[in-house]
Structure formats: structure tokens, C-alpha cells
Amino acid sequence: MSTAATDAVSDPRAPVGVGVIGIGLIGTHHADNLARRVPGARLVGLADAQPGIAERRAAALDCSFWTRDYQQLLDNPEVEAVVVAVPADLHADVIVAAAQAGKAVFCEKPLASDLADADRAIRAAREAGVILQVGFQRRFDRAYASARRLVSSGALGQIQLLRSITRDPSLDQPERVTPGAIFRETLIHDFDVLRFLAGGAEPVEVYALADALILRDWKPRGMLDTAAVALRYDSGAMATADASFQAVYGYDVRAEVFGSEGMASIDVSDSAQLVHHTWAGSIRARPRWFIDVFADAYAAELAHFADCIRGRASPESTGEDGRAAMVMALAAMRSAETHRPVSIDEITA
Ligand SMILES: NC(=O)c1ccc[n+]([C@@H]2O[C@H](COP(=O)([O-])OP(=O)(O)OC[C@H]3O[C@@H](n4cnc5c(N)ncnc54)[C@H](O)[C@@H]3O)[C@@H](O)[C@H]2O)c1
Q1: Contact 53 CB / ligand 1 (< 6 Å)
Q2: What does each of the 349 residues of the chain score in pLDDT, given as a tens digit?
């Protein structure tokens, strides 16, 4: 280990050296955050398999180390931790390699593409004794975190109903949508929220409907662009989630927790601070870009990751949370395919 990395680990105030693997849509944003707005962390390297990508971003962010081979990033002693932002089918392999190199891992959702891979990733992190955090940024959004505190304090009473909604503005790149993505990649956030806000209750049964309602012609290619899910918890509570890949009015992310003593409702994509009044009426514009909605949450989740590595916070959004949301997504996929309710046990058995 280099002197710099040894000094960093022995000094709990030193910023954590973080490398980013996969500099695409979300990896670019994480790299920018690490370079500029994450207290407790500093960007020390970038890796992307495509020629020129890591190099160009490194130049823009004044980062001196870049490579096309993520193993070289893992071999760099300046790198104490990595952000994994490659496509989901590669997550498990990269997590295992990073854990075996002794690096703490922040992995974008979903944790993996199947349960065997999720277990492999969790096991590798546990055996190496490194932190594994999954990128469920809604947990770090102020409104969601406040709702969770209301649930935990008992202020909402006994939790009876929950609801979570994710609607993206536009299905403009249908070729990027893999079969099952609406469950594995999109509703996975809702599934996590529905556990995060359930006061410790765990889902036991899932019923899902899904179809291609936006791009009907794409259905034979496996496109599912609209989905609705109902679920039941071991506490008896019930929840619904729905998702659409095209809300013409903009990005729409909402949640509700309803209990015997009241309700918490969240609408992070309602820009209530700006209402444009015109002759035609009043317009509350919604953002069209998820990064605008969750800008603070994306920085907060990485700050939390750095705090965990330095022992200043306890892990939130763990590998086990990533696995639990995946189980719900797999149950929903099976339910949509078979047109019947699917018990969680059926997936985990
Ligand atoms: N939390 C969120 O809100 C959020 C938002 C967007 C994406 N994501 C997740 O982040 C992950 C990445 O999504 P994206 O949209 O940024 O994908 P993307 O396709 O835009 O980027 C992936 C990048 O990984 C690189 N890559 C592929 N194989 C590699 C390898 N072996 N080594 C190094 N680099 C490699 C590609 O060249 C590409 O630049 C997905 O799991 C996705 O679900 C999460």
C-alpha cells in the first residue's frame, strides 16, 4: 500500500479516495459529484471499457488516473473505494473483484441481475470485510428520510397502506430498454422505498401487471413500458406501485405512507417553489431529468458511503437491501408472466 493510502486510512479525517468504474449516464454524475461536492471523498481514478471515455472525463475533472481496464483501477493503492456504474449484468463480477482487492464498494442498483450473483457479491464483500452500499438514492432524499423518521417514531401509527410511483418523461431510446427493465431497473427503486417506509414489515406476496402501452409495436421484442404492482406485507399492510416510461408532463416520483394516525406524502418532482401564472392558467413545471430531482440525494448517498468507510455512520442501503428489492422485482416479473400472485418464498426457496 502506498504511503498516501496508508496515511488516509490511519487518519479518520482524510477524504476517502474513490474510483469510478463505468463512466456512462450515472457514472459521469457520480464522478462529477466526487470531484466537486461530496464531503469526505475525493475522486482518484476513472475506468471505462470504451476508448476515450474515462480519459476525456478525467481531463474535465482534473483527475490524474484513468484506464480502460477496471482491474488497473483496483490495483491503484490511491483507490480505497469504488463506485460501480457499469450495466447491471456486470455488477457482481466487478463487486467481487473490488472486494477481493480490499476496496469498499458503492454499487448502482440493481445489485445484480440474478439472485445467485447477488449472493456472490454479498458474500465477497462480507468475506473481505468491506462495505457494500447499493445506490438507492431515494433513502437519502430529505423528504423520504423525513417520512421514514415519522414511521419510525410511531407518529403515523400502525402502517396500513403504502404507495410508490415512478414515471419517466420520455421513452425516446427504446432500444436501450431490456426486457424486464421496468421491474429490475425502474420499479426496483419503488420496491426499495416500499421496504424503507414500511416500519420493518417485509413483503410476502406480489401481484403485477405489465404491458407495452406506449410503444405497442415493440411488445413482440419484449418491451414492457407500463406496470402496476400490488403487494402484501407480513404485518398485513398493503402497498401499490406503478411505473410508466412516458409521462408527457415530466418526471413524476411520489410516495405515500398511510397509517392509523395519519399519512406522509412525498412528491419530490413537484417544483412547488415555482409556479408560472399566465393568461391560460398556472403552470407548475415538472423536471424532465431525474438528476435534477435527486441531485442532493446522489451527493448525500456518496457522503454517507464515505462516512461509513471512516466509521462515522452505519451502513444504510446495504447489499441485503439490494437483494431484498431484487427478490420483489423477480416476484413481480414472475407474476406478470404467469398472471397470478407470487409469494416471496417462491422466489427465495
Ligand atoms: N440510481 C439511479 O437513479 C440510476 C440512474 C441511472 C442508472 N442507474 C444504474 O446505473 C447502472 C449504469 O447505468 P447507465 O445508465 O449509467 O449505463 P450507461 O450504459 O450509460 O453506462 C455504462 C458505462 O459502463 C461502461 N462499461 C461497460 N462495461 C464495462 C467494463 N467491463 N469495464 C468498464 N466500463 C464498462 C460503458 O462503456 C458505459 O460507459 C445501471 O445498473 C443502472 O440501472 C441508476
Answers
A1: yes
A2: 444 444 445 577 899 999 999 999 999 999 999 999 999 999 999 999 999 999 999 999 999 999 999 999 999 999 999 999 999 999 999 999 999 999 999 999 999 999 999 999 999 999 999 999 999 999 999 999 999 999 999 999 999 999 999 999 999 899 989 889 999 999 999 999 999 999 999 999 999 999 999 999 999 999 999 999 999 999 999 999 999 999 998 899 999 999 999 999 999 887 666 677 778 887 777 787 888 889 999 999 999 999 999 999 999 999 999 999 999 999 999 999 999 999 999 999 8
Q: What is the SS3 assignment for 225-244?
A: CEEEEEEEECCCCEEEEEEE
- Determine if ligand 1 sits within 6 Å of the CB of residue 154: no
Q: At what angle do helices 115-128 and 91-100 cross, to 10 degrees?
A: 10
Centre of ligand 1 to C-alpha 329, Å, is 19
Q: Whose CA is nearest to atom 5 of ligand 1?
A: 26
The CB of 21 under 6 Å from ligand 1? The reply is yes
Characterize the bridge pairing of strands 41-47 and 66-67. parallel
Q: Tell if the pTM clears 0.90, that is, is over it.
A: yes
